[in-house]
Write a structure and sequence with these properties.
single chain, disordered C terminus, 8 helices, alpha/beta
Length: 206
């Protein structure tokens, strides 16, 4: 329980960083909640040491705590990547009503397998956020990516940089487990506008 709660606390802390727009931006954002796209590694290695269960529990905690305050979307990746629950679906389902339970139902149906393709993950995220921004009737809505991975197979610096410079979307990077290459994740965070990765380096810390 202590190991799981430590990870949940870390993940919820990053959600606070994303939702700060609600309190420090102008009053329009109180009615027009910021977007947070959760990008979750579902590679085969996430099945070890209860990482997959802990990650899903963390996402449930974040989405429950910020229900109605943020528009959530969910993307998962392994050897490829896909949007599992679109940000626009959150809006149409009802940000304060059905968005969170339906996202969680979608999350419950996903399992782990395959490799870890960080480039595919951020490329799909960028394309989705670009489409969401183009279709959004709210000008200036804040957006961010919450990126969780337990490994490093491909570097995605240019993709994280493009999200920040082209769309104004920050990437919050969480390294999970002992397989991460911290220097890679730190650079992803730096070029993604958040400067510092967050790392849970081994299972004893969880």
């Amino acid at each position: 329980m202590r190991r799981a709660s430590a990870f949940l606390h870390l993940f919820v802390g990053l959600a606070v960083c994303c939702s700060v727009f609600l309190f420090k931006a102008n009053s329009a954002f109180a009615c027009d909640p910021p977007d947070v796209l959760i990008v979750l590694d579902r590679s085969c290695s996430m099945g070890s040491n209860s990482k997959w269960t802990q990650a899903k529990n963390a996402i449930r905690t974040i989405t429950n705590n910020y229900k109605g305050k943020l528009r959530f979307g969910l993307e998962t990746f392994n050897s490829g990547a896909a949007i599992n629950y679109a940000l626009t679906k959150c809006q149409s389902d009802g940000v304060a009503t059905n968005c969170v339970p339906r996202l969680q139902t979608t999350l419950n149906s996903i399992s782990y397998s395959g490799g870890t393709n960080l480039i595919a993950a951020l490329t799909v995220a960028k394309n989705h956020l670009n489409a969401v921004k183009a279709a959004d009737t709210v000008s200036g809505r804040k957006r961010s990516v919450m990126f969780l991975t337990d490994g490093q197979a491909t570097c995605a610096f240019s993709e994280a940089r493009a999200l920040w410079l082209q769309l104004g979307v920050k990437t919050y990077v969480i390294g999970f487990g002992s397989l991460v290459r911290r220097s890679t994740l730190r650079e992803m965070a730096r070029v993604g506008g958040t400067e510092q990765e967050r790392l849970v380096s081994d299972q004893t810390q969880l």
